[in-house]
UniProtKB/TrEMBL annotation:
GO terms for cellular component: membrane. InterPro entries: Phos_transporter. Belongs to the inorganic phosphate transporter (PiT) (TC 2.A.20) family. It is found in: Membrane. This is Phosphate transporter. The chain crosses the membrane at residues 35-56, 62-80, 92-119, 139-159, 171-189, 195-219, 231-254, 260-282, 303-322, 350-369, 389-406, 462-489. It is a multi-pass membrane protein.
Amino acid sequence: MSDKDLEPRHLETLDRDLGRFANLEAAAAYVSRPLVAPGIGFVFIILAGLAAAMLLGQSGEMLIVVTAAVFGAYMALNIGANDVANNMGPAVGANALSMGGAIIIAAVFESAGALIAGADVVSTIAKGIVAPEALDTPATFIWAMMAALLASALWVNLATWIGAPVSTTHAVVGGVVGAGIAGAGFGAVSWDQMFAIAASWVISPVMGGVVAAGFLWLIKSRIVYREDKIAAARVWVPVLVGIMAGTFAAYLVMKGLKQLVEVSMGVALLLGLGVGLGCWLLMIPVTRRQSRGLENRNKSLKVLFGIPLVASAALLSFAHGANDVANAVGPLAAIVQTVQTGDFNGDVTIPLWVMLIGAFGISFGLSLFGPKLIRMVGSEITKLNPMRAYCVALSAAITVILASWLGLPVSSTHIAVGAIFGVGFFREWDAERRLKQARVAVPRPEYIPADERRRRKLVRRLHVLTIGAAWVVTVPAAALLSALLFLILRQIPA
């Protein structure tokens, strides 16, 4: 290269060209970044189909099972993207866990729950919604399950995209109802069960909200509003942790470990009582040690609730993986058994490879698509700190136990989100109450205008409306979509 080639004007031209290449690379990276997660998800779905093909060999019905495995993997991804946010959102919103830490913990415990205590037997028709004998042939049953699986996955995917946490169980039920009606008429549906599910749209969030608000009131009245907050915390934090430990022990025995250990409600509650008392005694010296040197202010109290909150999130994820993996793989397992044996009226045993699709699909869905819903649940409905998030987590476990005792069908998704709403609305009520007390104690001509207080609402009303509408629409929307898919799929000979 000659000196003439290195003249300033040539160097300027070279710099501009390099700048254009840099801008082009940055633009390409910006455009391709949103496609990474869907691409990885697509690869997982394809691998699930290939695994099914290799395990079944050259059987005549291989294409049906491969298609069902693809739909099941797709549903598992959507469960991870949507449902798991209810367990991890409060801990992340309270800054007790980072997003990365929450994803790792949830992935591990969701997979463990699915594989260790996952439902190894499910009803052939989800929750007894449709009478099996109404679907008169194996082909009709196969297409009904296929349509239900795909319809529920599509609906949960849409709900995740718009930022609405919905019940995947309700989506599957809606899918089964729609396919059942399309295949056998309205008489095939157990409408009493459907009315009970509709009632749970109200029961679940209200119960969760009331229980969470009650515990937040207890924490505020016994700790936060006390003159010596640290001394009060030394008394009440061990009690609250004991309540949480006992509740989760009973919750896991009843919901998460029911496939490994069959126990009655009374035995589960006795086990929970024993665990709760043990943890209460254990936490007394631990809390004293943690509270040494803490300043007498609310911010210091967050330290004492951090570890219990992380533990509760992990336990909720374990129980969720044990229970809700069946939403993804239950219909798939029913299809596999029907194809292999021709029997679609009995109980269905879920093979290990099917459970693996569900477990890994939930973990992948959480890792790839979960942060959006985790942020929404944890910080966009109302502001959470460790104490409020603790109330949400404890409410989820207590409400499920109460509902099981009363025989009420409830949704863990609705309970968790309802608990967040309950915490937020209680804070609004409590702030208004304290404001009135302050005005009585120190009258002021102008304190805060009413319109200004309205702008300071502690719960975002837009999310209340969006999530509530998504809950109500889930079953009919999944049912309608499933019915349409069933009418299309049954044209294909099974």
